[in-house]
Write a structure and sequence with these properties.
By secondary structure, the chain is an alpha/beta fold. The protein is built from eight helices and 19 strands.
Length: about 400
């Protein structure tokens, strides 16, 4: 039993994700029975109580606040408000899903790996959670899966074999990049780049794909035998990869730190390393979206016209995958809980790490997880007043 602080208790019911017409509701600690939601006078059955679960509330109106009654066997238990996002102008051009920080082969969670899941005959828990995330992302409509590093726990042969088992369950194209756990260099570890190239998933350190409405860039920021990452070694390739005539989305493993000196663990790509590279990419084209993993948390911020996000791990609290819908006018991000009940039982349990403080810190706010970002005009470039260059890196919003 892992002790937790009293103020870190998880809510019984919460709205975890919102798109323009759909929201994901999650619940825990409810009695047995059918969980439902009444919206605009209509009840929708979402799933079974008695264990953690999640359901999709549909038929919502964009840019609207909806009062929702949460029911159990038709009896109202809670009331929640859902604030739905606005619709992005234009048709959906591409749908991309991401998972990250899978740590295939991990046997326990926490600083000392003291949290263990009961043995499952189905699969080791990181593999089971990754499979569930892929199933849910494909059902959501994903046309491409990007795996943003830390695929394995230590890059060992049996862990790469688990990755092959995962790939056998993926029905859409895959791009995968290594993370620091894949390049840690433990005795017996395999070369991560060679393993991905052998599977045809990541042919070069900066890999580009032309998708409808957007240029996809997947980049390897990992440094062999180190936890932190760097953009400078691939800076020229990153800048030249940015499309000049349409938006670009950059997928990396390491999040981009916001301070000159690291303030939180895990250490990542330093501001003095990453920020000049991102500025140079923005000078080529200000329509840029950047998303990473590594931190096992959900956050978003802006760096001038670029949106920069971190998305949490698939296998520990809150246990998520992310979806991106590309439109001509912008892109929508939605981060959803992996909804398979046995996965939720474990990821809710892992909130207790560090006395429950990790569980409060890692999810971020719903605004960190679900929002849309309007593309800046691709025909203009940001200009930096010389006297303000020391302030130019991180803008609020």
């Amino acid at each position: 039993m892992t002790p937790t602080l009293p103020f870190t208790a998880l809510p019984s019911v919460e709205v975890f994700a919102c798109e323009d017409r759909v929201a994901q509701l999650i619940w825990r600690d409810l009695p047995n029975g059918l969980v439902g939601a009444i919206v605009n006078g209509r009840e929708q059955i979402l799933g079974e109580g008695g264990r953690p679960g999640a359901g999709e509330i549909t038929g919502l109106k964009p840019s609207t606040s909806h009062a929702v009654d949460i029911t159990l066997d038709g009896r109202v238990l809670f009331q929640r408000t859902i604030h739905n996002d606005s619709t992005v102008e234009g048709d959906a051009l591409a749908r991309i899903a991401t998972i990250s920080d899978l740590h295939l082969g991990e046997e326990g969670f926490g600083l000392f790996k003291e949290m263990k899941e009961a043995h499952s005959v189905d699969a080791d828990y990181p593999l089971r959670f990754a499979r569930a995330a892929v199933r849910e992302a494909e059902a959501w409509g994903a046309e491409l899966l990007v795996i943003k590093g830390d695929i394995t726990d230590f890059g060992l042969p049996d862990q790469w074999a688990l990755f092959d088992e995962l790939l056998n369950h993926v029905n859409i194209p895959v791009v995968a990049i290594p993370g620091n756990h894949d390049t840690v260099g433990r005795p017996g570890s395999l070369d991560a780049t060679a393993e991905l190239q052998r599977r045809g998933l990541f042919p070069s350190p900066v890999h580009t794909m032309d998708l409808p409405g957007v240029q996809l860039i997947a980049a390897n920021t990992a440094i062999d035998r180190h936890n932190w990452g760097k953009l400078q070694p691939i800076a020229d390739d990153l800048v030249s990869a940015v499309a000049a005539d349409r938006p670009s989305m950059l997928f990396v493993h390491h999040h981009l730190e916001t301070h000159f000196y690291p303030r939180i663990w895990p250490f990542s790509a330093r501001r003095r390393d990453a920020s000049p590279v991102i500025d140079a990419m923005l000078e080529r084209n200000p329509a840029l979206f950047i998303t990473s993993g590594h931190s096992h948390r959900n956050r978003r911020r802006r760096q001038w016209s670029a949106m920069v996000t971190e998305v949490g791990s698939t296998k520990d609290h809150p246990g998520v995958w992310a979806g991106y819908v590309v439109h001509q006018a912008g892109v929508r991000q939605v981060v959803r809980r992996v909804a398979e009940p046995s996965c939720m039982e474990w990821t809710d349990r892992t909130h207790a790490a560090a006395g429950g403080l990790r569980g409060q810190w890692s999810p971020g706010t719903i605004g960190d997880r679900s929002f849309h970002h309007a593309w800046s005009p691709v025909s203009t470039s940001p200009t930096w007043p010389e006297e303000q260059t020391h302030q130019r890196v991180f803008l609020p919003g």
